[in-house]
Design brief:
41% helix; alpha+beta
C-alpha cells in the first residue's frame, strides 16, 4: 500500500513538474513580444532563479531549444553555454565504473547530447568553457563529454577546409545569392567575368527581371570559332545550395570534344623514334586524336560549358533575354542554333528553411552547406 502511494506521489509530482515547465515555456518564450538574444537570456535567468533545485530543467531546456530560432540565437555559442548551465552541477556524475557503464542519468545525458547535436547542425564550435560545464554536470566518462571531444577535434579540422567558403550570415536577397552562386560555379576559371543584366532595358523582353551571367574569355573565343548553324543547348534547371538557400542556374552547352583513346599500340617506353606533337609529328600507330592537348576545365565528357546564368524568375523568356544579351558580346551567336532543353523551371530564387523542406518531404539532415 505504501509502495502504491509512493508511486502515485511520484507520478503526480512528475505531472506537476511537466505542467509547470509547459506553463513556464509558454510564459517565457511564446508570449514574449520582443524576441531577441536579451529576452531569451532573460528567460533562462528567470528559470534559474525560480527554483534552486532546478526541477524540470530537462523539459525546460527542450522547450528552450525549440524556440531558439525564433529569437535568432541558434548560432550563438554564449546562449548555448547559458542553456547548458541550467542543469545542476555535481549530481549526475557517476561515482564508479559500473554507473558510468550503465549510462548514468540517461535523461540528462540525452538532453545535453541534443543541445550538442543542435550546435553541430548550426556549425557552432564549443570552447573550453563548454567542456568545463559538461564536466561539472555529467563528468568525464559520459556520452556528452565524448560528443564534446569529437566536436572539438573535427570542427577544427573541417572549419577552414572548404575551398569555397561562405559567410556565416547569408543574405536574404535573391540577386546577392545568385551572384555568390555563379561566382562559386565559375571559380574553376579565375578569368571568368560576372555580369548583372537588367531586362527592364530590353524592349523584346516580356519578363522584367535581373540576370546574373558568367562567361570567361576562353568561352567567348570558343563561341566565336564555332561553325555557323551549329547546335548549342540551354540546359537546366540545376540547383546549387548555399547553406540553407537554394539557387537555380542554367548552362549554355556545346558539343563534346573528341575523346582521347585509352589504349594505343605505341610503346611509350620506346625512345628510338621520338616525335614532337607540337610540331605536327604524329607517332606511327597512334590514333589521330591522341596528340590533342589536355582538355580545359570547360570541356567535359558530355559537352563543353560555354556560359552559365541565374535569373530572377528562372523562366524561358528570361533565358531568351540572356541569349540576346550574349549575342551583343559574341556576335557569332546569331549564326548558331540555340535549342532549349529545360527539364523543369524551379521557383524564383529565395532562401528555403529546413522546416519548409521537411514539410515538402525532404530530410533536412541529409543536406550539406
Amino acid at each position: 500500500m505504501e509502495k502504491m502511494d509512493q508511486e502515485e506521489f511520484q507520478k503526480n509530482t512528475l505531472i506537476k513538474q511537466t505542467r509547470d515547465t509547459q506553463l513556464a515555456s509558454k510564459e517565457l518564450f511564446e508570449d514574449v513580444k520582443a524576441k531577441n538574444k536579451k529576452t531569451f537570456k532573460g528567460a533562462l535567468e528567470m528559470f534559474k532563479n525560480r527554483d534552486v533545485r532546478r526541477r524540470g530543467a530537462v523539459e525546460f531546456i527542450e522547450a528552450a531549444r525549440k524556440h531558439m530560432k525564433e529569437f535568432g540565437v541558434e548560432k550563438d555559442l554564449e546562449v548555448y553555454k547559458s542553456l547548458i548551465d541550467i542543469l545542476p552541477k555535481d549530481i549526475y556524475i557517476p561515482e564508479n565504473r559500473i554507473q558510468a557503464g550503465f549510462y548514468h542519468y540517461p535523461k540528462q545525458q540525452e538532453c545535453l547530447l541534443d543541445v550538442l547535436v543542435q550546435m553541430s547542425e548550426h556549425k557552432v564550435t564549443p570552447d573550453r568553457e563548454t567542456g568545463d560545464l559538461i564536466l561539472s554536470i555529467t563528468g568525464l566518462d559520459s556520452a556528452p563529454m565524448r560528443k564534446y571531444s569529437r566536436m572539438r577535434y573535427w570542427h577544427s579540422k573541417f572549419k577552414n577546409i572548404s575551398p569555397f567558403p561562405l559567410p556565416l550570415e547569408m543574405p536574404n536577397d535573391g540577386l546577392e545569392l545568385a551572384k555568390m552562386a555563379i561566382e562559386r560555379i565559375t571559380s574553376v576559371d579565375r578569368a571568368t567575368k560576372i555580369t548583372v543584366y537588367d531586362t527592364e532595358n530590353e524592349v523584346e523582353s516580356e519578363d522584367k527581371t535581373w540576370i546574373v551571367s558568367g562567361i570567361s574569355p576562353f568561352q567567348k573565343e570558343f563561341l566565336s570559332n564555332i561553325p555557323k548553324k551549329t547546335n548549342l543547348y540551354v540546359e537546366g534547371a540545376f540547383r546549387v545550395w548555399l547553406r540553407g538557400s537554394q539557387v537555380t542556374y542554367f548552362t549554355l552547352k556545346g558539343q563534346a570534344r573528341p575523346k582521347r583513346p585509352k589504349h594505343s599500340n605505341h610503346d611509350i617506353d620506346d625512345l628510338s623514334q621520338i616525335k614532337i606533337w607540337t610540331h605536327g609529328e604524329i607517332p606511327e600507330g597512334v590514333d589521330e586524336f591522341s596528340h590533342l592537348p589536355e582538355s580545359t576545365v570547360h570541356e567535359q565528357e558530355d559537352g563543353t560549358i560555354l556560359a552559365c546564368c541565374a535569373t530572377g524568375t528562372s523562366s524561358k523568356d528570361s533565358l531568351l533575354s540572356w541569349i540576346r544579351l550574349l549575342e551583343k558580346e559574341v556576335p557569332n551567336l546569331k549564326h548558331l542554333q540555340i535549342l532549349f532543353t529545360i527539364k523543369q523551371a524551379w521557383s524564383p530564387i529565395k532562401p528555403i528553411s529546413k522546416e519548409e523542406l521537411s514539410m515538402q518531404g525532404y530530410n533536412p539532415h541529409n543536406l550539406k552547406d
